[in-house]
Design goal:
- This protein has five helices and eight strands.
- The protein is α/β, with parallel strands linked by helices.
- The protein has a single domain, classed as Vaccinia Virus protein VP39 (Rossmann fold).
- Helix 4 runs parallel beside helix 5.
- The relative contact order is 0.16.
């Protein structure tokens, strides 16, 4: 696994040999960033279910201002910390060991807003309540987007409260749904 583009292009991302982490395939990551490239520069990014931190690191490599990484798996947090340190991104990154719902509620209470929110949960753990909580807690900026990676066979809602899916694409077993 590597950084696809930007200032860190071609550098390898440390991973974890675990069934609890399913990294986003390079072809899916490349397609995802081709779709959102216009809004990445100077963005504030939330990487939920961060795993290795690959999506947030890719965003930082492409010019995002700040990335916050969330994972409930302690070993994943250690990998993210290693990657952030190896890429010298510590001033642009914050890492929290928490569930997605805990983090969303915390950022809602603190009034924190994000331009891009990545959701890449373990496929068997997808919970549409996470998308609902993003809306309820108002953590998405006015022009922000949510990118959900999910199993292509799983039907995800086109509308959740005020979040509306504006783009959907399958990549083999994987699918990306984009909301705003």
């Amino acid at each position: 696994m590597r950084v696809i583009s930007g200032t860190l292009r071609g550098r390898n991302i440390v991973s974890l040999d675990s069934m609890q982490i399913r990294p986003t395939a390079d072809k899916v990551k490349e397609a995802l960033f081709n779709i959102i490239q216009a809004i990445v520069a100077d963005a504030t990014v939330l990487d939920l279910y961060a795993g290795t931190g690959a999506l947030g690191i890719e965003a930082l490599s492409r010019g995002a201002q700040k990335a916050i990484f969330i994972d409930s798996f302690r070993d994943a947090i250690s990998v993210i910390e290693t990657n952030v340190k190896n890429f010298e991104l510590t001033k642009n990154a914050k890492i929290y060991n928490a569930t997605a719902l805990e983090a969303i509620k915390r950022f809602g209470r603190e009034g924190v807003k994000f331009d891009i929110i990545f959701l890449d949960p373990p496929y068997e753990a997808y919970d549409k309540n996470v998308l609902k909580e993003i809306e309820v807690n108002a953590i998405l900026s006015d022009k922000g987007i949510v990118v959900l990676e999910h199993d292509a066979e799983v039907e995800v809602d086109e509308t959740i409260d005020n979040l509306k899916r504006f783009y959907f694409k399958k990549y083999g077993r994987n699918a990306l749904s984009f909301y705003r």
